[in-house]
Design goal:
Elements (H helix, E strand, L loop, with lengths): L4 E5 H4 L8 H4 L6 E5 L8 E5 L11 E4 L2 E2 L11 E7 L2 H4 L10 E6 L5 E14 L10 H15 L19 H5 L3 E13 L3 E13 L6 E15 L3 E15 L5 H6 L20 H4 L8 H4 L1 E21 L2 E20 L2 E3 L2 E3 L2 E24 L2 E12 L3 E10 L14 E11 L3 E12 L3 E12 L8 E3 L2 E4 L1
Parallel strand pairs: 4-7
Antiparallel strand pairs: 1-6, 2-3, 4-5, 6-7, 8-9, 9-10, 10-11, 11-12, 12-13, 13-14, 14-17, 15-16, 17-18, 17-19, 18-21, 19-20, 21-22, 22-23, 22-24
Length: about 475
């Protein structure tokens, strides 16, 4: 091996329960770091290969079943057979500028010849916070506030001089944390003949957050079909579909820590029915973390699909041609309605925000490969090109306010509505040509040359073309 490459297969993954692809390689490949975008269920992950390679974007290039540009979060962990990470310049040179942050190659499971096989994997469990912070009781809290007021030369509000504030009413960590059930189920059916194979899989994930008010659900569907035509031609397609649904809004942990222990969770005299603390009465402007949980209706929906199609032909002995294409489509909708409430120093009216977005990305590749062994010499050469036409995206965000009640939750009938944001555009357009030559002697010594010519819309107008050569020996 003349390049730095890390590989993790199904055997390396082990019999572990994971909810995303990143967890499969966490701690299994040197130089690879898996970063969770947040601690919420269903949060996407990002793989960092040997730190940051660019200033603006640390994401590596994902190659799913040989085709560039897929979304790692759209593939079920149970569908993955092997993950390969290309780390150094020699290994990623053939991918050009797109591989500046490394390349993650994902190989999914394919159908196998034989009669129909049905397999099921699943688990259920409970997640809970393993530790909670030790907080001040009401008396200790008031003593601290008095000390701060004395140091700042501020007058102590009359409310904080009453014995009522020395009563412990609420453990705010107990109010926001819970034991959260989670479950995941995966069903696969595969089989085939010498001429055709198939694999169909279904997945379902349902997970509550360890903070109240948050639930994540995911549905996945995948088909992989492969057909041989004669002795030289092979055709195939893979379709990955994913639908996610997020219900609810988790509470703020910081606000829960800041709320005084003497404050109750609810107060029927406050708008919305939840207690509040204010700067004037409590010397504290924290927000009640439960207000946003119970007085807000939030639903985030997304649907994405990745269609891959390919054809292969054996032209001559050792000479092989493959053409392949992919189309990625995504649609998202976000809905967020808030009832009228008082929280902290603020009075919040009824409001509704909605966001709609869609986008697509196509790509086409052609690869010609020649593989020949002559005694103790082995030569492998390939040339190809990639064309990404630059998919489109579009989004709009709407806001409504002034609702007379909580029954009419539609922006079209809001007394006040407006467009607060939106955009559209074209993703990166790229036309590339690449080549690689491998020479091996006695299955021991290897020399590799790779090169790529990238023409990209993100390059400067005077430098639309970039060249990425590399050479390695071992």
């Amino acid at each position: 091996m003349a390049s730095s490459v890390g590989v993790a297969s199904r055997k390396d993954f082990g019999e572990v329960n994971v909810s995303n692809v990143g967890q499969l390689v966490q701690g299994k490949i040197a130089g690879v770091q898996v970063i969770n975008q947040s601690g919420l269920p269903g949060a996407s992950v990002r793989i960092a290969v040997r730190g940051a390679g660019t200033f603006t974007n640390m994401n590596p290039l994902y190659v799913i079943d040989g085709i560039q540009g897929g979304d790692i979060n759209s593939v079920s962990p149970y569908d993955i057979e092997e993950i390969t990470v290309l780390k150094d310049a020699s290994a990623v040179a053939i991918y050009g500028s797109s591989g500046a942050n490394g390349v993650v190659i994902i190989t999914t499971k394919r159908g196998k010849t034989g009669k129909l096989r049905i397999s099921y994997e699943g688990y259920t469990g409970v997640a809970a916070p393993w530790r909670k912070l030790d907080m001040l009781n009401a008396q200790q809290y008031i003593e601290l506030v008095k000390d701060i007021a004395a140091v700042q030369g501020s007058a102590l509000p009359e409310k904080l001089k009453t014995p009522d504030v020395l009563v412990d009413r609420t453990n705010w960590q107990n109010e926001i944390f819970r034991s959260a059930p989670l479950s995941e189920h995966f069903l696969n059916m595969n089989g085939g003949t010498d001429k055709s194979t198939y694999s169909v899989s279904l997945g379902y994930t349902n997970q509550d957050g360890i903070m109240i008010g948050y639930n994540f659900q995911r549905y996945t569907f995948r088909t992989a079909l492969e057909q041989k035509v004669g002795s030289r031609i092979k055709l195939g397609q893979t379709l990955n579909m994913r639908h996610t649904l997020i219900n609810g809004q988790p509470p703020s942990f910081i606000d829960a820590l800041r709320m005084p222990p003497y404050a109750p969770t609810r107060d029927p005299e406050d708008l919305g029915g939840f207690s509040k603390v204010t700067t004037i009465q409590d010397l504290n402007d924290a927000f009640n973390p439960l207000t946003g949980v119970f007085l807000r209706e939030r639903k985030d929906r997304s649907f994405s699909s990745l269609l891959q199609m390919y054809g292969e032909i054996d032209i001559l002995e050792g000479l092989h041609f493959r053409t392949q294409g992919a189309l990625q489509i995504g649609v998202e909708h976000s809905y967020n309605y808030t009832q009228a409430n008082q929280n902290g120093n603020l009075t919040n009216p009824r409001s509704l925000t909605e966001r709609y977005s869609w986008g697509y990305n196509p790509i086409i590749e052609n690869i010609l490969t020649y593989d020949k062994r002559l005694g103790q010499h082995k030569i492998t050469a390939l040339i190809g090109n990639t064309y990404a036409s630059g998919g489109r995206f579009r989004n709009v965000e709407l806001e409504g306010a002034g609702f007379p009640n909580d029954e009419l939750r539609h922006i079209a009938i809001a007394p006040e509505n407006r467009v607060v944001g939106g955009g559209s555009g074209v993703n990166t357009t790229r036309l590339s040509y690449f080549t690689r030559l491998n020479y091996m002697y006695k299955d021991r010594y290897i020399f590799t040359f790779s090169g790529r010519r990238d023409g990209s819309s993100v390059f400067g107008p005077n430098n639309r073309i970039g060249y990425f050569p590399s050479f390695a020996a071992a």
